[in-house]
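Input/output pair, single chain:
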Amino acid sequence: MSAEPTSGTGGRPARVRVTGPPRRRASGVRPTASREIDADSELGAVYMSSLLGEQLRLAAGVLVALGLTVGVLPLVFHVFPHLSDLRLLGVPVPWLLLGVLVYPWLIVLGWFYVRRAEANERDFADLVADQPDER
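Output:
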């Protein structure tokens, strides 16, 4: 099967003392992303700041979308005062826009934000899990 060392007397194999499974050296253990994050090292701080930066960009984008749509409506009604005289099905247009159509838009923005935030966290978890954890 396998070649055994023959340094004993009479051509017999030398005796080997087995004390347990082979051990890895401490220098052979590579630091992983999760260990770096747990240890609050500089590399862990870089990982966390990348996640926080991505979440901040997402939040800022959603707030800009909200500001450019809902936040501009009062300015539009101020610049074009004749819009308040328009009626659709007997209801003033400003009431329809601010009282009815804003809420579905808020739900859409909230749905989009939650889905993208979860995707960012999933991507981050995959990034951290991709590195082998040698213990």
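The chain has four helices and two strands. The helical segments are 33-38, 42-69, 73-79, 93-130.
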